């Protein structure tokens, strides 16, 4: 099989066969020496085609030699692969089995071992002597012109000397015909051929030997078939190529088997990468399966329960001491535990034991002395390190340190050790153990370094959690203090909510504050609750104050506090007004007047505040409520002209030579919050102004400034958005009524400024339009854009057709000047439906490219026929690169063909100089004002230059 040199044999009656040099035929050859038959030439031919015998045969016929010839067709399925050497039986006269004997096909051999009679018949003592020459199976390479070859001829086709048929067998007759011609043909691809049952066949009437290969040699290192390819090949060379195709029940591309020896190897690959499912293996063994559901490697253990299913050996001695070993070690096949390594659909890697039995996974290593189990994963999911029976999800067993948590530098760590008493020691290379969240200690204490109780935690039967500071020494002092190297460290002890803070609540000793009464500070005497202090007591007084004498005063009440203050505390008050001032007859006076005549005033005359460190209910009331509520039920002159709240500042400067600057705000409204825990969401307005009159003819907010100073900080309105009052890019309305967005110095009626970009967003719902009108008249006075006396431009985004339009208006006429299609990106000039990236619609010139001086240009115009005219103020159009004209001509100024470009059916591109006038002259010449200008016409390469090649005129 493969590509071989082909030999064509022709007999004297015209029978022909094409075959390889190595194929044997039954022939009678001349008795010549090896030198007479060209042994050297034959061996050379043999070396070229020796690696395989094959034939390329048409019209092959099977036959059991000389008896019951079969006329079946050969195909891949009828070629057996386990047949014995050729054995010819049932021979009829003039040949019999006893006369011819058994014919064996010797195995293929290297060319340097062949002789001119490499295949001969066995047991030929009884062969018939035909013309004193014995018939032998002889390879084509040893046949010569004039040798006789066995053929099977139809009845009567070969005549004897008297002109009558030699014999009249109904199936044909065996003859020997001379070879009149041996020709070597070009090489072609050929195949092995083995004939079932008979092991011989007839091809084109010529008897051919079956090439089935079987060796019964008993010498050492014998090769039943040796195939070698050592030639230098450009591309891919195959030493052996086997393929099986066709619609069979089972196709086997190659089958290798070995048996009967002490060591049997079905296949050994000595060198080179092996690919299964791939023609380009990138490793010693690469298995590839393009099907997602295909099995790439399947190891079937079979009935031997101790068989190693898969192992990677370390040193090649097959002692199973390799790096990876998967094997069965159970007593019954149904319980074989073969671990599985696989990837899940998510890409995770799994090492999994058999799913139908409950077993553990052990990891063992060798320490130089013995193999020991280092880690175990049991069937419940527990992981054991140093133990094969883990009792928890992670169980680390050791007599010393069981767990170490190490920082990435590998030098600092936290060591965790459990001693023989069950105590856990955490020993850090650092100085502390940090617990980020709560620490709950149940049924235990915190001890000092000596093992004595320092803080005891416990839970009583009443479920009251206690943290008790304890000390083993009687009459000792338990110290709770802020310590450390830093100064000014406060210590805070608080109860929660409204519950009391108990200091010595059950003991009999006094409570000392800041050292106690005997030194500095105060003492609360436990027996009577009296407070005694060595120092000054300041603050508020919560005792009883006798106000009975001023319940109904008969004259003005004046309290002269001098440098003292008065505080009113209403701790037990829950719903009534804590401090009420009321009058039923006050008409022009002031119910509450707060005033100060001090010249240097830095305080507040009135402070309204609500404070508290914690709260458990929602805040829904007002800190300050100024309300004017009255019902008018008749009479004239009942108009309300007063202000509900009047906040004003009036300053008179009467100091010559001095400057007085007013910088404080007239009114400051501040709304702020601090989030330390939880989520703080602000949805209320800092200031809300509501105009609730349905017939109002006034402003909800009216702001005015009387200043005419054009300074950069003179505004009627300013809105800051950075949390300060000094934003450099606020929203302002200056003293001239100009609006600035992002700028404090608007240069026009509306000035939008951004440090990186300036955006103006106009939004509409659904398919409505958004537009901006730029008019030269007051559109409001005339109705709308495009009305009489209203001329200008409108920029429109049409939400219906998703296009941007630039329209112009002169009176009542509106024209679309520019269109941009949102979806396609097409731009139209003079059209609302652009069909290209730039579509300029006009009856005359549609595009002009103008030089920077504004006087010279190139005009581009498309007429009603679709012709493009480029009219330059210059004298030429310059094309810097190639000009490709497809399917058209170059015309002269009269519209006549001047140069024609075309492509013929033979795909030869032509450029033809033409002219419409008969007998006219087509001029191809170098022109211009310069002299001595050459004209060069060249063909390409070695092809000829044709001048008047097909015409009949002379060449001048």
UniProtKB/TrEMBL annotation:
InterPro entries: Hint_dom_C, Hint_dom_sf, INTEIN, Intein_C, Intein_N. The keyword Zinc does not apply. GO terms for biological process: intein-mediated protein splicing. Residues 171-216 form the Hint domain. Keywords: Autocatalytic cleavage, Protein splicing. SMART domains: HintC (SM00305). NCBIfam families: intein_Cterm (TIGR01443). This is Hint domain-containing protein. It comes from Candidatus Collierbacteria bacterium GW2011_GWB2_45_17.
